[in-house]
Design brief:
The complex is a heterotrimer of chains A (about 450), B (about 575) and C (about 290). By secondary structure, chain A is of the alpha/beta class. Chain A is about 35% helix and about 20% strand. Chain C has four helices and 21 strands. In chain C, about 55% of the residues are buried. Classes of the chains: A alpha/beta (about 450), B alpha/beta (about 575), C mainly beta (about 290). Chains in contact: A-B, A-C, B-C.
Chain lengths: ~450, ~575, ~290
């Protein structure tokens, strides 16, 4: 890596800003601001810094509507909002997807709109840590805040997560290298284990690498649980790992003073999906009989956890909530974006702060190409090519303040550092405008004439 | 706007009004002595009029609540209802969603609910949720019992610094009073351990639970906070925890209370869970009589009960090691949530069954406490929602308290036979009257929490009023327990700050809630010094920046600030 | 006896929800009631007669006397027979999600495939699917640890992943193959699989019985070899042949029974020191 000169040419420093990249939500960044732009970022990792500094790269500046020739044409805000509101108001199966890179204040407006019109509200959990949430619902959730890891943990396990690449400051700030109250020598006081079929960058800096075979996760964790119960393993090699290695690993885990399991998409998206997490949670629960263990899902976007938390306290369900019938429904496989799209059900798709064009399976995107798509985002991306109405939002944590929840559930207020481009609007404002316009266009569907209590809660 | 509630039968224990037929008047959100002739008349002839309910200990908002909601969709599904023009869709039975919580408390005639556990690190989150709960005012009690700074101050005996710390942290977290949960135990849980009894020491910090309780009680009284320390003692739910509970009471006996509004210097929450005799579940029995005897004698102790209601519910407490013990018993899905340097919480679903001997014992102990404690001003009605049962069961508990016949029916036919051999419940025939019910659900909790604007129908107080469709002269509560349960479950009127929220058993208005917090004056210099002192530690060992720690106004919904002049 | 015949007029790309059209609700309905009825589709309701012609014959005093015959392409009709307690439903096509979910009585016969969540949290009744099913057949609602508690499900074809998840009563029979993690978290009841099982049946099971007559792929370490049994009798049904019996899942001290056909799964048998001569010779044969 070439040496980079420190940036000295700036007008002011805005301290203690929060990074709007991954679920670490590092809140110690200093922005170097010049002429209303962030020209440098201190303390952030490369991922965070580049996202914050390249904020004007391929930036959506003005609202656009796709015309009859299929070209996106720049229009004024009223025209674009009216068009979008018309699509939503006339829809029968609207889906509102995204939300993970915007503030919970914006989600509040979105939820009000979704509840009004009877939409499905879903976020990126549906394609990333959704299986983790399902497993949590089946097995429980022994979690701790990241400061607890910093201060106490002496064994950190990364399973199916390459944190060095995906959450670069995670190890430095919260788990491995940092000095904690009871771990004053930082890295030297901790054992790091990586469980991953690939020899990743995280595995390279670990003390131990367990390279179990792909899709072998469930069998591997099941074997650990059996060993924890005192069983002799009958097979010599389980999921590609010799049984002696499993005995040794279990011994190490039992002897930890405070162990933490961090898991990522490598665990959530292999063959047995949520059951991998399910059994990993059970394993952590078993380990608590011997010492203290916890786990944390390595959430991706900075507010993906926020949406789940927000929806849980507002509606009782974390993601994929369907309000079509006037009450909340949450059925995995039915009310999730990908399932709905591949079944070809939605007739309007609102995407906010997400990029389905880049992330969704082909079949889902094929359906998106057929239906009106409304995009609220700050950058031009594959989804813009699918969009029929484009509404340029603003950058939370840089151009606009807002609430986010870190991967461990700690609320962080992301403050505003610079002004947004003049023609852009705050996400919260856009969604509120949409809501108000939709309310004018269509009477609220599926309203019960009177309150009928649910007999199960009497 | 002026209103007059006409011809109701009023129970207002704070003003010693016991079932008198009289009018209640209010204007611009406050109770008044008289109104003009333009006042709108609400005819409540022969119906019970009480101050709106005050729940002294409940879990309705905060980080562990949200995990509960997130991980129990099967519970959320139970309470799902369709939206109406006014109300959003509801969800949840034991852990209802935030809007649902507000609606249901309103229907019960409650106006104020104390959120009993708020980790300061997650205070912003708690207030974010409080703002989402409509119709009820919610003060939140920050957790101090396992806070590392508190443990250090308590070990060193630095009461002045501790008082300044509490004063600062109430401002930072916008909290109302001092909550202590399993002091030293939740810290020990950081290493997978627990403390047993109040003379056990927290690992590393080298301080006993007793020292922590005494230090916090002294600091609390030094500041003269409206509420006393609010304690969940050690050894919750363990057979043979009566000595721990009594030692906890005894430990603060010599500390003088320093607030005119209340009588106690220690409030013990969900006392039911702390009144078990015996050595193990095999020989467990009720210790309620012994505990109640102490409470009867002591002037400095109040309690709420945490009555078990025989439902499938969710236990959640900042007593994480106890939750792990429960997990080992039931094997159901277990949640743990450790908060750095502050506390640790746990959650687990639980099914209280009348067929289970242990659950029957718990149910009986709760009722025994109600019936053995003579002075209703010392005991409050709670289920420790959602731990022993959801709050929507309060009317059922009222029907049990008012009807010995119903209790005997349950003892004879419905619950396990342990109730005869291990408890004194079958021998108790005391029945609460409406005045007592008004005391344990309104007047006493308000006094215990030191509220000087609610819980009474005194002129100048908030117009928080509940009207129930019961004619006390026309009903025999000991026979018609089903009717009592039904009528207390849905008010004719719930009035909050002079606004009619429930009318004729329908919610007609949804209003934003308020949060209540305590602002101590006169400790500004000391607070500054304490914060400066702990800042190096904070910067090094907390995972967030100091700037992100305090609750800013953005998260406060209609705050009500209670100013306290600290006496030094 | 009342026969209600649904004849499809057109299909919808957005699923119709039939949760209100169950015998318990409609046993008193005449044709005019159906003509008035609006069926939920997405956030709206549309006249049912736009999609189906309905013919009603006979009278019914109770839900049990109702027979519904639904003809046409039902791939976008969900919640058929959801929460029903009696009566009979015949579907002459493949059906969408949640067929027979939470039913407590009555009969549903699907002449085709069923989408996911068929017979979810059933507590009684009989659900027969002539074709294949997808994920979560006879499973529990997410988060619930008490799944299907009674009744019977028969799948003639193959079943998808996590069939019989959290099974706590009743019986599921799959005549075809089962995908991974059949009977996961099971605590009671019987699962019978005539075909092959891909991987890991009975993960974290507490109790109950899984019988696999076909070839088993991978077995979890949580299962402990118990014995080889001849013609086992499971809740009154005798399974002919030799079966290897495992107990598990040991990870949570489970006492579940997993029976796999010994003849088809001889490779599994070789791992355990059986004294039986026949099986010793099999082991020797394998070693060749």
């Amino acid at each position: 890596m070439a040496y980079e000169e420190p940036i000295t040419d700036y007008d002011e420093i805005v301290e203690n800003c929060t990074c709007a990249f991954c679920g670490c939500n590092c809140d110690d960044l200093d922005y170097l601001v010049k002429d209303g732009h962030v020209v440098g970022v201190r303390h952030a990792c490369r991922l965070g810094a580049s996202k914050i500094m390249e904020d004007m790269d391929q930036r959506l500046i003005v609202p656009m509507v796709r015309d009859d020739n299929g070209e996106l044409k720049e229009v004024d805000w009223d025209t674009a909002l009216d068009k979008a509101a018309e699509y939503i108001a006339n829809s029968i199966r609207p889906v509102m997807y995204g939300w993970s890179e915007t503030s919970t204040e914006c989600m509040k407006e979105g939820l009000a709109l979704g509840e009004y019109i009877g939409a499905v509200l879903d976020n990126q959990a549906t394609i990333c840590h959704g299986p983790s949430l399902q497993a949590v619902q089946n097995a429980g959730y022994p979690i701790q805040t990241l400061g607890e890891v910093q201060n106490r943990a002496d064994v950190c396990v990364y399973s199916g997560s390459n944190a060095m690449n995906s959450h670069p400051r995670h190890l430095a700030r919260y788990s491995v290298f940092c000095r904690g109250f009871f771990r004053s020598r930082g890295r030297f006081d901790r054992t790091v284990v990586t469980m991953d079929p690939k020899f990743t960058d995280t595995a390279k800096m670990s003390d131990k690498w367990i390279g179990f075979e792909q899709n072998g996760d469930y069998g591997f964790y099941n074997a650990i649980r059996a060993v924890l119960k005192g069983k002799e393993l009958s097979q010599d090699v389980i999921s590609g790992i010799p049984k002696e290695d499993i005995y040794e690993l279990v011994e190490e885990m039992k002897n930890a003073e405070f162990g933490v399991l961090f898991f990522g998409l490598g665990l959530t998206h292999t063959l047995s999906k949520q059951r991998n997490i399910d059994i990993a949670i059970k394993m952590v629960q078993d380990l608590n009989k011997f010492s203290k263990w916890g786990l944390t899902p390595m959430r991706g976007h900075f507010n993906v956890n926020g949406f789940n938390i927000f929806m849980a306290f507002e509606t009782g369900f974390p993601f994929g909530v369907d309000f079509a019938r006037g009450y909340a429904r949450y059925v995995l496989g039915e009310t999730n974006t990908i399932d709905l799209l591949t079944r070809g059900e939605p007739d309007v798709f609102l995407v906010i702060a997400a990029d389905p064009g880049a992330h969704f399976p082909n079949k889902a995107n094929q359906h998106l190409a057929k239906i009106p798509v409304i995009q609220i985002d700050i950058h031009w991306g594959p989804s813009t090519e699918l969009a029929d109405v484009v509404l340029p939002g603003s950058f939370i944590g840089v151009e606009c303040g807002g609430t986010s929840y870190r991967m461990d559930g700690v609320l962080i207020f992301m403050k505003k550092a610079i002004d947004k481009p003049e023609t852009c609007r705050d996400d919260e404002w856009i969604v509120r405008e949409l809501k108000e316009r939709v309310m004018k266009l269509r009477k609220e569907p599926n309203v019960a004439p009177e309150y009928i209590p649910n007999p199960a809660a009497q | 706007m002026e209103y007059i509630l006409k011809n109701g039968i009023v129970y207002d224990p704070a003003n010693k009004v016991n079932g008198e037929k009289k009018d209640v008047m209010f204007k611009d959100g406050k109770i008044v002595e008289k109104v003009s002739s333009d006042a709108k008349v609400l005819d409540v002839t022969d119906k019970i009029v009480m101050p709106a309910g005050v729940d002294p200990h409940s879990h309705v908002a905060g980080p562990k609540l949200v995990v509960g909601r997130l991980y129990r969709p099967e519970d959320s599904r139970k309470g799902v209802t369709q939206k109406t023009n006014l109300l959003r869709g509801e969800s949840g039975f034991s852990i209802p969603s935030c809007p649902t919580t507000g609606y249901r408390y309103s229907r019960l005639g409650y106006g104020t609910v104390v959120e009993a556990a708020m980790p300061p690190l997650e205070a912003k989150h708690t207030h974010d949720e409080i703002a989402t709960i409509p119709n009820i005012d919610i003060p939140a009690l920050p957790l101090f019992g396992n806070n590392w700074f508190v443990l250090e101050f308590a070990r060193e005996g630095k009461i002045d610094e501790l008082a300044a710390f509490i004063s600062a942290w109430l401002k930072i977290s916008k909290g109302y009073g001092v909550k202590i949960v399993n002091p030293c135990g939740s810290e020990a849980w950081g290493w997978g351990m627990n403390v047993h009894g109040i003379n056990d020491k927290a690992p590393y910090f080298d301080v006993t639970s007793k020292e922590v309780i005494r230090a916090l009680a002294k600091a609390n009284e030094k500041l003269g906070l409206p509420h006393s320390i609010h304690i969940h003692p050690n050894d919750l739910g363990h057979p043979g925890n009566v000595p721990t509970t009594l030692e906890t009471f005894e430990s603060v006996k010599d500390i003088d209370k320093n607030a005119a509004v209340r009588n106690q210097n220690l409030h013990c929450c969900h006392l039911q869970f702390h009144s078990y005799s015996g050595n193990s579940w095999k020989d467990a029995s009720s210790g309620a009589e012994e505990v109640a005897k102490y409470v009867n004698k002591a002037d400095n102790i109040t309690c709420d009960v945490g009555q078990v209601t025989f439902d499938e519910t969710t236990t959640m407490t900042a007593d994480a090691p106890m939750e792990y013990d429960l997990f080992k018993l039931s094997g159901l899905k277990w949640v743990n949530k450790d908060i750095e340097c502050e506390t640790a919480a746990g959650i687990i679903p639980i099914i209280y069954s009348p067929k289970s001997p242990v659950n029957t014992l718990q149910w009986a102990i709760g009722l025994e406490l109600f019936l053995h404690i003579d002075d209703p001003w010392k005991v409050c009605l709670t289920t420790d929602h959602p731990n022993a049962g959801p709050f929507i069961r309060y009317p059922r508990i009222i029907s049990w308290l008012m009807s010995n016949e119903r209790r005997m029916e349950m003892i004879d036919n419905e619950v396990h036979k342990w109730v005869h051999s291990r408890t004194t419940l079958p021998t108790l025939d005391r029945e609460y009257d409406f005045y007592d019910i008004a005391t344990i659900t309104r007047a006493a909790p308000a006094k215990i929490h030191g509220f000087s604007d609610r819980g009474e129908l005194t002129p100048g107080y908030n117009a928080d009023i509940a009207v129930y469709d019961i004619n006390p002269n026309d009903i025999d509560p000991s026979k018609e327990h089903e009717l009592i349960e039904k009528k207390f479950g849905l008010t004719d009127y719930t009035i909050k700050d002079g606004e009619i929220l429930v009318k004729d058993k329908e919610i007609v208005k949804v209003k934003e809630s308020s949060t209540i917090w305590t602002n101590v004056k006169g400790y500004e210099e000391e607070e500054k010094a304490v914060i400066e002192g702990i800042m190096p530690f904070f910067n090094q060992y907390y995972s967030i920046k100091w700037e992100n720690y305090p609750v800013h106004d953005h998260y406060l919904s209609n705050p009500i600030r209670v100013d306290v002049e600290a006496s030094k | 006896m009342k026969t209600i015949t649904f004849k499809q007029k057109k299909t919808s790309s957005i699923a119709l929800e039939f949760d209100e059209l169950i015998p318990d609700e409609i046993y008193t309905w005449g044709e005019s009631d159906f003509n008035k009825y609006e069926v939920p589709i997405g956030n709206s309701r549309f006249p049912l007669t736009d999609y189906f012609d309905i013919k009603v014959e006979g009278e019914a005093e109770s839900p049990d006397e109702v027979k519904m015959i639904i003809n046409g392409d039902l791939n976008r009709v969900k919640y058929i027979g959801c929460k029903m307690s009696g009566g009979e439903i015949l579907c002459n096509s493949s059906v969408d999600l949640h067929v027979g979910a939470e039913m407590s009585g009555g009969t549903i016969i699907v002449d085709g495939n069923a989408a996911a969540h068929a017979g979810r949290e059933m507590s009684g009744g009989y659900l027969e699917i002539k074709g294949n099913t997808k994920e979560f057949t006879g499973a529990s609602y997410i988060g619930e640890w008490r799944g299907m508690t009674g009744g019977e499900i028969i799948v003639h074809g193959n079943a998808g992943k996590q069939c019989g998840e959290c099974l706590s009563g009743g019986k599921i029979t799959v005549l075809g193959n089962c995908d991974i993690l059949a009977g996961i978290h099971m605590s009671k009841g019987v699962m019978e699989i005539q075909g092959d099982v891909n991987r890991w049946p009975g993960g974290q099971m507490k109790n109950g019985t899984i019988v696999i007559n076909g070839k088993l792929g991978r077995l979890l370490e949580g299962f402990v070899f118990d014995e080889v049994v001849d013609n086992p009798d499971i809740e009154g049904k005798v399974y002919d042949g030799r079966f290897i019996k495992y107990t598990g899942d040991i990870g949570l001290n489970g006492k579940g029974t997993l029976l796999i056909n010994a003849d088809v799964n001889r490779d599994k048998l070789g791992e355990y020191g059986e004294s039986d001569d026949e099986y010793t010779s099999i082991r020797e044969y394998r070693n060749l």
